[in-house]
Amino acid sequence: ANGLPPLHAGMSVQQWAVDFAAAYAALAAEAELGGAMALDAYAAQDPAECFAVLSAAFFAAPGLLQGSYPEVYGQLRLFYRQDPLLRLGG
Predict the structure, then answer these.
(1) pTM over 0.85
(2) DSSP character for 82?
């Protein structure tokens, strides 16, 4: 588990890596500050946990994820082949 699941045809491994690495770095920096975080600080543990936490946010708090990490939201929309914001009317 390294935070890079098998992607669908047409998805860019390189772009996935760029988008998730940026989110992971931002989450790690935010966690380092020690304050309250909008997303679960456990995401800063390692890339696999980052993927897990951001995946959970994709379904449970899609507006928060899209507002905080729109590139990751776009990647997960492609990966899960759905858009929770549309389903929730957002």
Answers:
(1) yes
(2) -
Question: Could you report the per-residue pLDDT of 26-70, keeping only the tens digit for each?
Answer: 999 999 998 889 999 999 999 999 999 999 999 999 999 999 999
Among 57, 58, 51, 41, smallest CA distance to 21 is for 51
The burial of 58, by beta-carbon neighbours within 10 Å (0-12 exposed, 13-18 middle, 19 or more buried), is given as buried
Separation in Å, CA 41 to CA 12, 37, 55, 75: 27, 7, 14, 21
How far apart are the C-alpha atoms of 74 and 78, rounded to whole Å? Answer: 6
User: What string of DSSP letters covers 7-56?
Assistant: PPTT--HHHHHHHHHHHHHHHHHHHHHTS--SS-GGGGS-HHHHHHHHHH
Can you tell me the distance from the alpha carbon of 60 to that of 85, in angstroms, rounded to the nearest whole number? 10
